[in-house]
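Give me a protein, keeping tokens residue-aligned:
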Amino acid sequence: MPSWKLVSGLFIGFIGSLVALVGVGYAMVSIPNENDAAKSQNNVYYWADGKQMVATGTGVNRQNVDISQIPDAMQWAVISAENKSFYQDSGVDPQGLLRAVVNMARGGQTQGGSTITQQYVKNTYLSQQQTLTRKLREMFISIKVGTKLDKKQILQGYLNTSYFGRGAYGIQAAAQTYYGKNAVDLTPSQCAVLAALLKGPTYFDPAGNADLDQSATADANKKRSMGRWAWILEQMHNDHHLTDAQYQEAKAHYPMPDGRKATRGMTGQISYLVDTAKKYVLAHSDITEAQFDRGGYQIYTTFQKDKVNELTAAVKKVQATRLDPKHRSLDKYVQFGAASVKPKDGAIVALYGGDGYENGHFTNNADTSGVPVGSTWKPFVLAAAMKYGTYNSNGVGVSPLSKYNGDDHLKVRKPDGSYYLNKDNSTFYQNNESPYPWGYITLRKAMEQSINTPFVQLGVDVGMTHVRDVAKAAGILPQSMSVDLNPSFAIGTSTPSAIRMADAYATFAASGEQADPYSVTAVKTNGADAPSFVKPKPAPKEAIDPDIANNVTDVLQNVIQNGTGQKAKALGRTAAGKTGTTDSNKSAWFVGYTQQLSTSVAMFRENPKDHKLLSMNGTAGVPSIHGGDIPTLVWTEYMQAALKGANDLGFPNATEIGKVQDEPGAPSPTPTVSITPSQTPSDSPSPSASEPSPTPSPSASQTCNGWSWKCDTTGGTNTGGTNGGTSPAPSVTDTSGTGGNTRGNGNGGIFGGPTG
């Protein structure tokens, strides 16, 4: 046993060493300078070719003010909300520091400073590495600040260095950004709103930040802001910092902040490109929004200037020729969102996000959700049928030549033979765009003419969970999919972003290889790679069987050659695509691709007040807008320019897949009729081709392309080649059953979470 002298000596030595260590640590640190923290730096963005796109940031938004220019109400709002004992405490919360150290040792998240003094130190500590050394250094700085500076100086430093969102650092910048006035002129009620932002501007800015987090919509943020505003005023009153009269006056009316404003350089599509790239950086690094907005980063993007300009020009040209909002009220509030992605790579080369920040449009239409995709969802249903088969095919994949009833106003049958019912227990009927009696037609023909009833029944027969799984594998984010997997799920009630739809169709273009979309290739700071930005190029992976993907492509080529997407034939090269239109004509899409580019175009009307979708019936002076009309014109105009001079690579040949599995109840085929096929440049001829003709079906001339397994002689329209017959059916339009949508933001974005 050691003697008590030895134990005492060791204990005294340990305490002495600890005191010496604290003394050395205390002596080595210096107190922060709020002016250093407020130095302005730009973030510089670069095009894919390395040329500068834009430098963002301005010193105007980083202006320090003396404590005498900060209203007492602002000072007390912060103290009452965050650190009631500010004027009495030492400035350091030992328990909070201990928790942070323990969490760090366990590999968990550290917590912010729990006192205003510690938060001030954290604001000015420019190194953001989460290390034990940094945390101990912050502790020593906080202790020194608490002993060297008086409380007014600390409070001034804190309010001058805090981040209030929208790129505003410090109370003066926040007052100008949110209320267009100097800090000294803020009312107590306005002070409470700004103090609420310190809880987290992403979630407490009433303008919303859904581009960064899907839950931070304008409505949700305003509700959170109003709740915390009222609570802060109550705390100020309880702490005797507001008189009864001041409190009653302050809480009588919520002072709504000004809307967002365009900053220097953030005009046209640049604003949306920067928004997309910033979101990507925050999603793939430990950099916080506050740190990022301090500036000093160089962001290298995938955006190609020529293609961005070409996509913008395509939208503007079609807008100018087809829309006249000055003379037609139903042309008002029409918006477009579009994105273009490289198959097998995932690089976003171009996007169209809206009219620009300078015109008050701050939502990135290329990377937000809330616009149902309609019939552009049907390829996922077909792919799922090819992969999983139906409950009636024993798991064997279904051929696109399988026949389903294409008539209008049909009951939808469950696998057990019963029918779907509405909420009032009445029978549910699925409708088409037209009452035309198609009879039993192939899935290939149903895709060509975008007929709803076959795909709704097919989706049920395959299983909507399988449809969802295929869409997810192709690149659609689960959070953007409709939660209700009812029959209408098969015809596009989900609301992915334009970027995600372009990326998902790129999976078909790449014969089933999927690569996540990305917009940034590198982030640098101080001349070196930002250490926390981890951006390996997304590795393509086989998400869909190549034969299935190529068969989907073959069917979608036919949509352009003979179906609802015929206006895309003006591209003059091999392409595949699908139109989409939703119930009540609230949105219209065209998504199409070649091997080089996959591009999606969405069109919709939105009430600027409540952001609910409006019907486009009557827009552009026509009864209704369909995906095969204006969206297809925009797509074609852009793709002609973007692919100018590029080779027509065509697509890999699609080999026969699955088995013909007609819908239960389909009539037995009548004797086949031999058909001599015509040869097309893209198809290898076969000696003969035939297909049973179901009964009943519309009478029509029968034509067929050179591949017998593609031959479709039902419905009166050639479905295989580029030189086939025409249909006696109604005009080629499509619609699917979705209605009453309020446009959301973010959850259909590239990332879907805090990064958007």
